[in-house]
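Retry 2 of 3 after timeout on previous attempt. Resubmitting structure tokens to design endpoint.
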């Protein structure tokens, strides 16, 4: 079982805001969250969640994996079956999280480290809520990777491969024939119009982190000056994705969310962003094995 090492007492509001951002507008993810945290039972099997959420088993596994990957629930086993356990902090804050999900406008005045209250000596530039439109995506949402929906997240284990091999595999899946060379000043590792989302081709920028870095990924580890996320969002694109084989710190997603808001306000359109973690990377390989084979 994953151990949550964050200090809930020191950044409670940030963790609540994080949970709301992860669940987002996904009705299925919210239903799975409600099912896991319903009642006094601390541990629920996938069958339990299916019954309470009223969703297909594969959908429950997909959404529960996203919650577990972001440490909102803990994945474990019960009687040989995949199960999910409540996090003590989020169990206590369930009501507040659900109220923000049901009424996102309440979150506007909720202070966090990246959205603090304005003090007498602090000047903060705020984006008006209606000035930006952002949505978090997963690989399951992208039409170009539709085969991944058939791969059960609980049945795959990350098996990291070289960055170039994985990137080349993604390019083969989407039919991208361009040349993309890695260099120190790059904004992204792949910028393409071949990825389809909601039946439309979308300009997409992707940053791939190779298997060499095995630490928990934080913004400081991204690029020589810790500015790789910032550079990624300087790319003229609608969708921004980050792929990494190992654990990703919440601060990475928070920084992507912040830059997505700024980019949306500047461009006057909806911006999409998301992570491809090791589990989803392994699912892609299993869904498209031929595309990732070396010649």
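Retry 2 succeeded. Sequence:
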């Amino acid at each position: 079982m994953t151990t949550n090492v964050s200090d809930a007492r020191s950044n409670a509001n940030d963790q609540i805001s994080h949970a709301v951002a992860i669940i987002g507008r996904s009705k299925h993810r919210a239903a799975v969250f409600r099912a896991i945290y319903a009642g006094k039972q601390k541990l629920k099997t996938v069958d339990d969640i299916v019954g309470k959420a009223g969703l297909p088993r594969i959908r429950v596994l997909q959404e529960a994996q996203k919650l577990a990957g972001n440490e909102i629930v803990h994945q474990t086993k019960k009687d040989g079956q995949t199960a999910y356990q409540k996090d003590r902090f989020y169990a206590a804050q369930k009501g507040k999280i659900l109220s923000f999900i049901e009424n996102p406008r309440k979150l506007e005045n909720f202070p966090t480290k990246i959205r603090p209250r304005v003090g007498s000596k602090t000047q903060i530039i705020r984006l008006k809520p209606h000035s930006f439109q952002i949505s978090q995506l997963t690989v399951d949402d992208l039409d170009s990777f539709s085969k991944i929906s058939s791969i059960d997240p609980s049945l795959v284990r990350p098996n990291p491969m070289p960055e170039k091999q994985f990137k080349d595999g993604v390019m083969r899946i989407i039919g991208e024939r361009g040349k993309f060379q890695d260099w120190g000043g790059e904004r992204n590792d792949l910028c393409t119009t071949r990825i389809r989302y909601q039946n439309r081709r979308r300009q997409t920028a992707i940053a791939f982190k190779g298997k060499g870095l095995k630490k928990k990924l934080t913004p400081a580890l991204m690029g020589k000056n810790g500015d790789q996320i910032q550079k990624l969002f300087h790319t003229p694109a609608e969708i921004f994705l980050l792929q990494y084989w190992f654990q990703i710190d919440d601060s990475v997603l928070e920084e992507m969310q912040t830059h997505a808001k700024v980019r949306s306000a500047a461009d006057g359109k909806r911006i999409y962003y998301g992570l491809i973690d090791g589990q989803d990377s392994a699912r892609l390989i299993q869904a498209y094995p031929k595309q990732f084979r070396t010649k």
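Attempt log closed. The chain has two domains: 12-109, 131-292.
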